[in-house]
Structures are given as C-alpha cells and as structure tokens.
Amino acid sequence: MNSSRTAPWRHRIAIGLLTVAWAGGCGTSEKIAPPTSSGPAPIPAVTITIDHQNYTGTPPITPGAALTVVNLDSVKHSITSKRPGLFDHEIGPGQTITFTAPDEIGSHPFYCRYHANMDGALSVRKAVSP
Predict the structure, then answer these.
(1) What is the count of structural domains for the chain?
(2) pLDDT digits (tens, 9 = 90+) for 82-129
(3) Are 111 and 87 in contact (CB under 8 A)?
C-alpha cells in the first residue's frame, strides 16, 4: 500500500465530518456556559499565617473577602501584590493585620518585599450558587 496516496473515501469522510461540525455551530442562539472551576468553593474570609518565612496555603476566596494575615515569625514581612498598587501591607513580628481582597476575579500572585524566597497567590473566584 502506498502511504503517499489517501483513499478517496477517506477524503469524503473527512469532508463530511467537517461539514457536520461546521453546521452544528450555525444558526444556534444557545449560549454556552463558562467552564466551572474544580476544587473547593471560594470563601468570604481567610487567615494566612506566616511561619518560618512561609505563607500558609490560601484557599479560593470571594471578591472582597476579608484577609487576615498573622506573622508568627520574629522578623517583619510584607504581603505585596506582584501587580503594583493592588495590595501591599507590612506585618511586624507577632502582629496581625486584616485587609480586603481584590474584587477582580483571577489569580493574584504576591511576595514578601524582605524575603525573596517567600511568595504565594490569592485565587479570587465568584461564589457558585446552588
């Protein structure tokens, strides 16, 4: 069998499949729902703990969630958005601060201005209604 030639029936099948796929999308006014994200539902308040120069994992949060950051270390840290101006807060040794999460849906990476090895991300998602 010569592999450089494709049987004519294969061309007809391919053209038929493409036609069906194209026609299936025409003339419909049905809206396609956006994909749902897997994992736990976002929550309206969370506490992030800094311990041994690490941020605890942060679960998905809702827009405008209350974020409490507890610094258990004996040195000053910050929680600073990698997107300038979104959020930037200092947390002294043994201190606790609370601030409001961004309203913008998406992932918001952050870091500590004082320790290059410290980073994390806030995952802001809409609450899914039942």
Answers:
(1) 1
(2) 999 999 999 999 999 999 999 999 999 999 999 999 999 999 998 766
(3) no
Q: Which domain holds residue 59?
A: 43-124
Does 8 map to a domain?
Answer: no
Q: Which residues neighbour 110 within 8 Å (Cβ) at sequence distance 6 or greater?
A: 79, 80, 81, 82, 87, 119, 120, 121, 122
**61 pairs with which residues across the strands?**
43, 124
End-to-end CA distance of the chain: give it in Å, rounded: 58
Residue 35 placed within a domain = no
Q: Would you say residue 2 lies in a domain?
A: no
pTM over 0.85: no
- Give the pLDDT of residue 12: 53
